[in-house]
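step: validate -> pass
step: tokenize input -> pass
step: predict -> running
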Amino acid sequence: MPTFITTQQLADRIQYDERYIRERLVPEVLVEGVHYLRPFGRRKLLFVWEAIEQELFRPESARSTGIPLANGGVCRG
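step: predict -> pass
step: emit ->
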């Protein structure tokens, strides 16, 4: 069973600001359905700690970069 944590709990664990997580990591690095989910289609995010932990230890060369979009987002095709 995965461990679900809030944005605040994630910020405490990885020592990043909550705002940075919401504004940078969620749209650019983390994938919805893999690293986090929105329960009941709401605004609140729940993060899957095991997936986040795995992403933290993954070498940079193993990360998929995706396709950069004009608005600054990334398409993970």
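step: describe -> The beta strands are 4-5, 36-37, 46-48, 67-68, 74-75.
step: cleanup -> pass
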